[in-house]
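Subject: Protein record for review, amino acid sequence with backbone structure tokens
Why sent: The fold of this protein is of interest and is recorded here as tokens.
Notation: Tokens come from a learned vocabulary of local backbone shapes, not from coordinates.
Attached in line: The record itself begins immediately under this heading.
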Amino acid sequence: MTHLDIALWGALPYIVLVVLVAGSAWRYRYDRFGFTTRSSQIHESRLLRVGGPLFHYALLFVIGGHVTGLLVPEMVTDRLDVSENSYHDVALIMGGSAGVAAVAGLAILLYRRLRVPAVRRATSGTDRAVYPLLAAAMLGGLVATASSLANPYDYRLGVSVWFRSLFDLDPDVAAMAHAPFVYRLHALLGMAMFMLWPFSRLVHALTAPVWYLARPYVVYRSRAVPYRHPAARPGDTRPTGAGRTPR
């Protein structure tokens, strides 16, 4: 274990966390209305209708797989009577499928951004840095997943142990330093992406309207419903305007 290992796996994750939190707070404070995707749908929608949902829905499964693999210890699946082979088969099939779908969606979005002149002109400098980084991180994840077929490395005994040790403020540097190169590269690309997150359009993920699922129902009432006063003559159903009381 070298000083570089300590810097990369012992100090860098906390620097990334500080930049992510402080940068997001700064962006919200000084650019609150910039928390947006900077949508370019007005310029082109055919490719966007395919690539956008494919990328975002597949990415949800990719994130779910990362959360499960990094935060759920191996002893939990053992208590649930999930064998090691079954766990890795499911992770390989579902994770690989979601990863391929996410990369395909991102490829469509990048092709659209390069192909449509108006969309290309709307691409900012940070976008030009984030998109290649995002693509490299996702491809690195696919390579790491595929490498498990030839190299039976159990990341739950290495990468996951290191990741969970960060929450204890006692990073297990050795666990990550001895991981295969593709896993370390994938982690470094991910940390680089999170450092750029607050300063790019990726920040729109923090504004996802999750609260919308729990909001109360909105009741609509028509303002032109005919009203018939009890003392009115039969057939007199003239509508009553808003704010008026019947005579």
